[in-house]
Design a protein that fits this description.
Mean pLDDT: 84
Radius of gyration: 15 Å
Order of helices and strands: HEEEHHEHEHEEH
Shape: globular
Number of helices: 6
Low-confidence stretches: 1-10, 13-26
Structural class: alpha/beta
Distance between the termini: 35 Å
CATH architecture of one domain: 3-Layer(aba) Sandwich
CATH class of one domain: Alpha Beta
Largest sheet: 5 strands, mixed
């Protein structure tokens, strides 16, 4: 059990992001206290999504891949949070970014696992690089002003663990 816990908490790589002290004036960057880097992404239907579209809402931005065991472990918790109307009523937006995989692989994975939360396909890993993600899964919690409030490297053990972070950001 301890080995499983260590595996889940460690993430899929050994490199980690080292947060720095927040600045008094938010700057754009991947660190807590900074404005979340904006991105523009074209969905398959031709619509464009950008991080700035979510201003006014708290955003849980999760980076993952199908080959990542800890990512796979936390998917059911993310799905449960996404389906929980209490959080959507509070303005939470759940957005996930699949890093570097083909659309067909991600679509198959989502169907096989009964997942319906939004996924951006970052095939060239542009968004992943903009957020300086070095370990999967990595989750950014971005406040209604677009400022990164929390960063979690590694998998969430359950929905309640995610909610602990959200309770600090959403009143």
């Amino acid at each position: 059990m301890l080995v499983l816990l260590a595996f889940v908490c460690s993430g899929c790589t050994t490199t980690s992001v080292q947060p720095q002290a927040p600045s008094t004036e938010p700057t754009v960057g991947f660190q807590k206290g900074n404005l979340a880097p904006d991105f523009h992404f074209e969905k398959p239907d031709g619509q464009t999504v950008s991080m700035s579209d979510f201003r006014g809402n708290v955003v849980m931005l999760n980076f993952w891949a199908t080959w990542c065991g800890p990512c796979r472990f936390e998917m059911s918790s993310i799905q449960a949070l996404y389906e929980d109307d209490r959080w959507s009523e509070k303005g939470l937006k759940v957005l996930t970014v699949n890093s570097g995989e083909s659309p067909s692989k991600v679509e198959t994975f989502m169907k096989e696992n009964g997942l319906s939360f939004p996924v951006l396909l970052d095939v060239r890993s542009d968004i992943t690089q903009a957020y300086n993600v070095r370990a999967l899964p990595t989750t950014f919690f971005i406040d209604e002003n677009g400022v990164i409030g929390e960063i979690k490297i590694g998998a969430f053990l359950n929905k309640s663990e995610i909610e602990l972070v959200l309770n600090r950001l959403i009143e």
